[in-house]
C-alpha cells in the first residue's frame, strides 16, 4: 500500500475509534464523575505508554524535542478531552460527534504556515459541504436547540483545531518518536487531572465491570492508539488533510449510535453522512493538489543548514532537518515554521 494511502487509512481508523468514544464516554460519565473518568483514562494510558517505552530500547528515553513538544501538546490535549467529556455528559453522543466535526473548518484557518498564500477557495467550499452535512445529520436525529453540552462541544472543536495544527507545527522537521511524545502527553494529563479528582478516587473501587471496560477502551484505544496514530500520521501529511480525514468521525459516531444505542437513522441522517464523506474526500483531493503544486524548497534549505551547522550551532537550521521518523516517500510539502 502506498505511504499516502496508508496514512489516510490510519487517520480513518482513528476517526472510527473516536466516533465510538462518545458513547463510551457517555456511559462512563453516567457511572462516575467526569474528572474521575478523565484521570482514570489518562492514568491507564500513561501506564500503557510507559510500559511500551520500557520494553523498547533506544539511545535515550526522551529527547529534548520530545519533551518540548510533549508538554504543551499534553496540556492542549487535556483541555480538548476536558471540554469534550463535559460536553458529551450534557448532550447526546451523536450530537457530540457531529458538532466536533466543525474542526475541519477551523483547522485550515489556523494552519496557515502549511500553505503559503492560503488554501484555494474550493477547499472551503468542500468544508462548507461538510458543515451542511453536519446540519443534516443534526436535523435527521431531531437535534435543534443548542444545549450546554452542544456549546461545550463547539468549544472543544475550536480547541481541537488548535491542537491538531499545533501537533504539526511542533513535530514537523524534528526527530520525534510518536510513542515517546504520546507518553509525555499522557503523563502531563494525569498530573493535571489527578489533584482535581483525588477526593473521588474511592469511587473507582466501587465501579462495576462494564464501567471498567469502558475506561480501558477509552484509555487503550481512544487514547493510546489514537494519539500514537494521529501523531504518526500528522508527521507524514498536513494538519488540514489530517483534519479532513478525522472529520469522518461523526459518520462513525452516527453508525455506532444506530448499531449500539438504538438511535434512529433517517433519510436526512443518511444524506448527511454521504455529504460528509463526499466533502471530506473532495477537500482532501483539493488540499493534496495544492500542497504538491507548491515548490518544495526544503532540499535547498537543508543544504544551507548542513553547511551552516558545520561552522555554527544555529538552532534555527537544525529544526529544518527532516524528521528521522518521516517516510522518505512522503509527497513534497512546504516546510512548516518551527
UniProtKB/TrEMBL annotation:
InterPro entries membership: Diverse_Substrate_Transporter (IPR051258), EamA_dom (IPR000620), EmrE-like (IPR037185)
Transmembrane segments: 35-55, 67-87, 93-111, 123-145, 210-229, 241-259, 265-283
Any single GO CC term annotated in Swiss-Prot or TrEMBL for this entry: plasma membrane
Topology term for the membrane: Multi-pass membrane protein
Region described as Disordered: 311-338
Assigned protein family: Belongs to the EamA transporter family.
PANTHER family named in the record: EAMA DOMAIN-CONTAINING PROTEIN, OS03G0707200 PROTEIN-RELATED
Protein name in UniProt: DMT family transporter
Originating organism: Streptomyces acidicola
Amino acid at each position: 500500500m502506498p505511504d499516502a494511502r496508508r496514512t489516510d487509512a490510519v487517520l480513518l481508523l482513528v476517526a472510527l475509534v473516536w466516533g465510538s468514544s462518545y458513547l463510551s464516554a457517555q456511559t462512563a460519565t453516567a457511572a462516575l464523575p467526569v474528572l474521575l473518568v478523565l484521570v482514570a483514562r489518562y492514568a491507564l494510558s500513561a501506564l500503557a505508554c510507559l510500559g511500551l517505552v520500557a520494553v523498547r530500547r533506544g539511545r535515550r528515553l526522551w529527547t529534548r524535542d520530545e519533551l518540548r513538544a510533549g508538554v504543551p501538546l499534553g496540556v492542549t490535549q487535556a483541555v480538548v478531552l476536558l471540554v469534550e467529556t463535559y460536553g458529551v455528559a450534557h448532550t447526546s453522543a451523536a450530537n457530540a460527534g457531529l458538532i466536533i466535526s466543525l474542526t475541519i473548518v477551523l483547522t485550515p484557518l489556523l494552519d496557515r504556515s502549511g500553505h503559503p498564500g492560503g488554501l484555494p477557495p474550493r477547499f472551503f467550499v468542500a468544508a462548507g459541504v461538510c458543515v451542511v452535512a453536519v446540519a443534516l445529520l443534526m436535523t435527521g436525529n431531531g437535534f435543534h436547540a443548542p444545549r450546554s453540552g452542544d456549546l461545550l462541544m463547539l468549544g472543544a472543536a475550536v480547541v481541537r483545531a488548535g491542537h491538531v495544527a499545533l501537533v504539526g507545527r511542533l513535530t514537523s522537521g524534528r526527530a520525534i518518536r510518536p510513542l515517546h511524545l504520546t507518553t509525555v502527553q499522557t503523563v502531563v494529563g494525569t498530573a493535571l487531572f489527578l489533584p482535581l479528582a483525588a477526593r473521588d478516587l474511592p469511587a473507582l473501587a466501587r465501579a462495576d465491570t462494564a464501567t471498567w471496560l469502558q475506561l480501558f477502551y477509552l484509555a487503550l484505544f481512544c487514547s493510546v492508539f489514537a494519539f500514537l496514530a494521529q501523531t504518526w500520521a500528522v508527521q507524514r501529511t498536513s494538519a488540514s488533510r489530517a483534519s479532513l480525514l478525522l472529520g469522518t468521525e461523526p459518520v462513525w459516531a452516527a453508525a455506532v449510535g444506530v448499531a449500539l444505542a438504538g438511535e434512529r437513522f433517517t433519510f436526512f441522517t443518511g444524506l448527511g453522512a454521504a455529504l460528509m464523506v463526499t466533502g471530506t474526500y473532495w477537500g482532501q483531493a483539493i488540499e493534496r493538489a495544492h500542497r504538491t503544486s507548491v515548490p518544495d524548497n526544503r532540499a535547498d534549505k537543508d543544504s544551507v543548514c548542513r553547511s551552516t551547522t558545520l561552522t555554527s550551532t544555529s538552532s534555527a537550521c537544525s529544526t529544518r532537518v527532516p524528521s528521522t521518523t518521516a517516510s522518505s516517500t512522503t509527497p513534497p510539502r512546504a516546510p512548516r515554521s518551527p
